[in-house]
């Protein structure tokens, strides 16, 4: 998807920053993002991991993350030419045109430059079980309701015209520790992607990235009691990242959108 004239300051990969963003938009306080120090499932023997240690540490590294995890957001290096490479890979992919309540994965085509963190967040809260945590009458509730019946161009127009969404993003970006780039039109050298279950009909696992033509069906059907940190989900996510990185599974960072019992 070609970027338009509008550009945002890139978001830092910080769980507190992303949690503040979703709460500002109107998600339940029971939801929060948490750092993931590994994408290896428990008891994995894979030592090529983001934490720099062996897979035998996976149990302890995941133990502090609340469950269930409703979505994963992964940040990967995106060197110059990243979107062009995606476009080449998707030559034969049919562009997503889903809409309405039966749309299996709610998808937003990204046209706002350097806003991939925002689009990743919207994909995380608009799909799977996270939809049950949208507080009625809030901005995110109204935005999802507005966008649900719209096709791609309608959703693009809705997001580009949404001043409240832009303000929430700007507030989140201002809380980052890194100084904003001198020129926000220069593409960031990282990309956000989201992993979610389908909205309806199944536990199918998808990779969703606004600069792609469509969500990617990862061929994994999760059971009702399998969340995004289940063994099968993590193995599938790691496999996708390894393929995207030409065999490399380090250099990324990851967050999980989790339910925290008792939080208000």
UniProtKB/TrEMBL annotation:
Catalytic activity: Thiol-dependent hydrolysis of ester, thioester, amide, peptide and isopeptide bonds formed by the C-terminal Gly of ubiquitin (a 76-residue protein attached to proteins as an intracellular targeting signal)
GO cellular component: cytoplasm
BP term (GO), one: ubiquitin-dependent protein catabolic process
Alphabetized UniProt keyword annotations: Hydrolase, Protease, Thiol protease, Ubl conjugation pathway
Top-level lineage group: Eukaryota
SUPFAM superfamilies per UniProt: Cysteine proteinases
Keyword Plastid attached: no
A molecular function GO annotation: cysteine-type deubiquitinase activity
Domain UCH catalytic residue range list: 7-259
Family: Belongs to the peptidase C12 family.
Protein known as: ubiquitinyl hydrolase 1
Species per Swiss-Prot/TrEMBL record: Rosellinia necatrix (White root-rot fungus)
């Amino acid at each position: 998807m070609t970027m338009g004239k509008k550009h945002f300051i890139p978001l830092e990969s910080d769980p507190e920053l992303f949690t503040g963003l979703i709460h500002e938009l109107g998600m339940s306080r029971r939801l929060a993002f948490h750092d993931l120090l590994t994408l290896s499932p428990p008891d994995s023997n894979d030592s090529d991991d983001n934490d720099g240690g062996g897979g035998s540490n996976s149990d302890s590294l995941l133990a502090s993350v609340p469950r269930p995890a409703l979505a994963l957001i992964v940040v990967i290096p995106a060197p110059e030419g990243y979107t062009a490479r995606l476009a080449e890979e998707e030559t034969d992919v049919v562009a997503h045109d889903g809409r309405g309540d039966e749309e299996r994965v709610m998808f937003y085509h990204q046209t706002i430059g350097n806003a991939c963190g925002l689009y990743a967040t919207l994909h995380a809260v608009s799909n799977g079980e996270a939809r049950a945590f949208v507080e009625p009458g809030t901005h995110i509730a109204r935005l999802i309701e507005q966008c649900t019946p719209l096709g791609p161009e309608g959703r693009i127009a809705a997001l580009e015209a949404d001043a409240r969404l832009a303000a929430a993003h700007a507030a989140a970006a201002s809380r980052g520790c890194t100084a904003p780039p001198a020129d926000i039109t220069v593409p960031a050298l990282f990309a956000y992607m989201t992993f979610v279950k389908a909205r309806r009909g199944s536990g199918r696992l998808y990779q969703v990235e606004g600069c792609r033509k469509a969500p990617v069906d990862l061929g994994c059907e999760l059971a009702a009691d399998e969340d995004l940190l289940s063994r099968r989900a993590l193995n599938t996510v790691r496999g996708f990242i390894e393929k995207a990185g030409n065999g490399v599974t380090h250099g990324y960072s990851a967050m999980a959108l989790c339910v925290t019992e008792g939080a208000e």
